[in-house]
Structure formats: structure tokens, C-alpha cells
């Protein structure tokens, strides 16, 4: 059985190892330490029954836009032998949960190669990320990246489908109507109270 748990400093070397096996985007150990020392809540590993690290998610909170708290997935990978078992989904949802619980994140973001169909399916279909932009030549070999975002709250209108937009508009109209009715009822009550007081005074 494979389990998901928060990463510790001892896991970093194995996370780096997994990254080297799985992705061309690699980082020095200092960068892993920077993540775990700054946002230890956001790093998760998948560990098999023998204690071997078979997957990880390396994530952080973005520091350059403090106005809107948001997370960023720096790297995610699962060893080939352990893919398609739901591990990446669990790693990502664990990190997402801590982004909202601990840091009150509005959304989280990531980059993915346009050709990475497995990861794109995971992000867009399973985890419901939206494409925010396409970054031309983002990767060192010149490939474009999808800049993707998942909103935990207040998903902007530009990401909503026609139906979702119509649903949102209907909900807002219903809320406005309910508020108007409540206001009218309150005014009527106040007028009634005023009339009773006036009658009592005469
Ligand atoms: C992308 C990756 C992390 C997915 O890991 P995983 O543990 O196999 O993913 P999961 O089992 O949680 O699968 C999540 C979804 O993606 C789908 N999926 C996984 N691999 C897929 C593939 N090769 N092709 C199409 N869909 C795929 C699953 O079927 C599942 O879909 P569902 O929720 O609709 O059933 C893994 O393939 C990997 O490590 N790749 C190399 C590193 C990488 O590309 N990292 C991402 C960099 S941005």
C-alpha cells in the first residue's frame, strides 16, 4: 500500500531523486530546502509499503503579489511504476487543502508543457484547473507552457462556461430580489410601528 504524508527534511533527497527520474526541470538541493523551510505544510510525498518515496509535490506560496494570497505548484511527479493509481491527485489535493486552511489562498497556479497530456488531463479534468494564459517558449528547449490556475474561491467570470455564467447571473438576481423583498418588508414594518405610535400619542 502507498500512503501520502507531509514531507520531512529527510525526504528531500528522495524527492530530488524522483524529480531527476521523471522531469527535465531539475533544482538544486538549496531550492528544496527553501520550500520546506518556508512552507513545510505544502510539501507532500507518496511512500510505498517499504518506505520508498515514489512521488512528491513541491509547492510554495507566491511572494511577489501579496495582495492576492496564492499558491504555486513548483514540481510534481510520480515514479512510472506507481502511476495511474491516483497518487498525483492525492498529493495535489493534500497541498491544495493546506494552501486554503493555512494560508487562506485565493487560488493556486502552475505551468505545464503543452505536450504533457498526462499532466494536462490531471490538472484540467481531474483537478479542474483553468488555462489562464499560454507562455510562449517558457521551457529551456523552447516549448510553450500553459499557465494554469485553480480558484478556491471567487472564480473569475472569464473561466466560467456559458451555463455557469447564466447560473451565476440567476443566483445574483435571486439574491438581489430577496434583499429587495427583505428591505421592503422592513420598511413596511417600520411604517406600521410608526402608525401605531402615532395612534397611541393621539
Ligand atoms: C503527470 C503525473 C504526475 C500523473 O501522476 P499519476 O499518479 O499517474 O496521476 P493520477 O493517477 O492521480 O491520475 C490523475 C488523472 O490523470 C489521468 N492520467 C494519468 N496518466 C495519464 C496518461 N498517461 N494519459 C492520460 N491520462 C492520464 C488519470 O487517468 C486520472 O484521470 P481521471 O481522474 O479522469 O481518472 C505522472 O504521469 C508523472 O509523474 N509524469 C512525469 C512528471 C510530470 O509530467 N509532472 C508534471 C509536470 S507539470
Automatic annotation (TrEMBL):
Residues 2-153 form the N-acetyltransferase domain. One of its GO terms (molecular function) is protein-N-terminal-glutamate acetyltransferase activity. CDD domains: NAT_SF. Keywords: Acyltransferase, Transferase. It comes from the Eukaryota. Residues 163-202 are annotated as: Disordered. GO terms for cellular component: NatA complex. Belongs to the acetyltransferase family. ARD1 subfamily. This is N-acetyltransferase domain-containing protein. It comes from Florenciella parvula.
Amino acid at each position: 500500500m502507498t500512503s501520502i504524508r507531509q514531507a520531512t527534511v529527510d525526504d528531500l533527497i528522495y524527492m530530488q531523486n524522483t524529480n531527476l527520474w521523471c522531469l527535465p526541470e531539475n533544482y538544486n538541493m538549496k531550492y528544496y530546502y527553501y520550500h520546506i523551510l518556508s512552507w513545510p505544510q505544502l510539501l507532500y510525498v507518496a511512500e510505498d509499503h517499504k518506505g520508498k518515496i515514489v512521488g512528491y509535490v513541491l509547492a510554495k506560496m507566491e511572494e511577489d503579489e501579496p495582495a492576492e494570497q496564492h499558491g504555486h505548484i513548483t514540481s510534481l511527479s510520480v515514479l512510472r511504476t506507481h502511476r495511474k493509481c491516483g497518487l498525483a491527485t492525492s498529493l495535489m489535493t493534500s497541498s491544495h487543502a493546506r494552501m486554503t486552511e493555512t494560508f487562506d489562498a485565493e487560488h493556486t497556479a502552475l505551468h505545464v508543457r503543452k505536450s504533457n497530456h498526462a499532466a494536462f488531463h490531471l490538472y484540467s479534468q481531474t483537478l479542474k484547473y483553468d488555462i489562464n494564459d499560454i507562455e510562449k517558449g517558457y521551457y529551456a528547449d523552447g516549448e510553450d507552457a500553459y499557465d494554469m490556475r485553480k480558484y478556491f474561491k471567487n472564480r473569475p467570470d472569464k473561466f466560467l462556461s456559458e451555463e455557469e455564467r447564466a447560473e451565476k447571473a440567476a443566483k445574483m438576481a435571486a439574491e438581489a430580489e430577496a434583499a429587495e423583498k427583505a428591505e421592503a418588508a422592513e420598511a413596511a414594518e417600520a411604517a406600521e410601528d410608526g402608525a401605531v405610535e402615532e395612534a397611541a400619542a393621539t
